[in-house]
Design a protein that fits this description.
The protein is mainly alpha-helical. It is 60% helix and 0% strand. The longest helix is centred in the middle third of the chain and has 32 residues, at 38-69. It is elongated. The relative contact order is 0.13.
């Protein structure tokens, strides 16, 4: 009996890290939806930031480890090495951070209309610190 050797066409699949970054971008976009209550929009910004922190601690950290331990092993879906995947991630993250900063500024302006402000610690009076 002859064994079947299957070959799978995975060209339609996406790299899971880049796909995850795209998902998190959509979370951030919710913070700009003016039909969503303002404090809920702030929560979306917070969720985005928390997700991104975890993404770097877990997924990027794992890819970094792989880039040291098995630098030439390619991902079975994207065909990219860990270093190539890291390069792609860093290229996507920089614009995301700039977008996050613009969203934050937009929300701060909206919050200020309700007398909610973000003060740097140094600007607080001693009793407020």
């Amino acid at each position: 009996m002859q064994k079947n050797h299957w070959t799978y066409d995975l060209s339609y699949t996406q790299n899971r890290e880049l796909s995850w970054l795209e998902f998190n971008r959509r979370v951030l976009e919710e913070a700009l939806d003016e039909t969503v209550p303002l404090l809920e929009r702030v929560k979306f910004l917070s969720i985005f930031s928390s997700n991104l922190d975890e993404f770097f601690m877990v997924r990027v950290g794992s890819l970094f480890d792989l880039s040291v331990m098995t630098p030439d092993d390619a991902d079975n879906k994207s065909g990219k090495t860990p270093s190539q995947q890291l390069k792609d991630i860093f290229a996507r993250v920089s614009p995301l951070i700039a977008f996050r900063d613009r969203v934050y500024d937009t929300l701060l302006k909206e919050l200020k209309k309700h007398d909610i402000c973000d003060y740097p610690y140094e600007a607080l009076k001693k009793e407020d610190r």
